Each structure stands twice: as structure tokens, then as C-alpha cells.
Amino acid sequence: MKDLFEGIEDLFVNVLFAPFDYIREMELESWFLANALNFLFVIVGFLAFLYWMKQLKSYNDNNEENRDPKAHSFLG
């Protein structure tokens, strides 16, 4: 049983977390390069936000939403 847990430890420490160790070491050389993945996530999130706002505007322009105050039970 001990070998199973040591195998799981070895998998996570030496294989799955290796890219994170590389990024941590790279931070000493270039902060921007080390945070490139974070910048990518921010850009993807911003593009998703813009897409969502565009879709909401198209539904709003077509008057597809029932805006009557009694349309939703939680409004009145």
C-alpha cells in the first residue's frame, strides 16, 4: 500500500508539477515570460466577455425578453 502512495507522489511531484517548477525558475529571468499563461487566460476571458455582451445586445435589439414587471416571480 505504501508503494501505491509513493507512486502517486512520484507522478505528481516529478511529472505533473514539473512545468510549474520550470515556470517558477523562469520568473527570476523574465517576469513577463513566466506570466504568459496568466496573460493568455486574461485575454481569453476578455474575449469571452465581449462575445457575451454582443449576444446580449443582439437579444436586446430584437426585443426577445419579456420586460414586464410581472414576467418573473422574483421581481414582484
Can you describe this structure?
Pfam families: DUF6341 (PF19868). GO terms for molecular function: glycosyltransferase activity. InterPro entries: DUF6341. The chain crosses the membrane at residues 31-52. Keywords: Glycosyltransferase, Membrane, Transferase, Transmembrane, Transmembrane helix. The chain is mostly helical and 76 residues long. The protein has one domain. 71% of the residues lie in helices and 0% in strands. It has four helices and no strands. The radius of gyration is 24 Å and the shape is elongated.
Supply the number of structural domains. 1
Return the structural class.
Answer: mainly alpha
Reading the helices and strands in chain order gives: HHHH
Mean pLDDT: 89
Measured as a percent range, the helix fraction is: over 70%
Give the N-to-C terminal Cα separation.
Answer: 60 Å
| SS elements, strand count | 0
Strand content: under 5%
Count of helix runs: 4
Shape: elongated
Protein name: Uracil phosphoribosyltransferase
InterPro entries: DUF6341
GO molecular function: glycosyltransferase activity
Transmembrane segments: 31-52
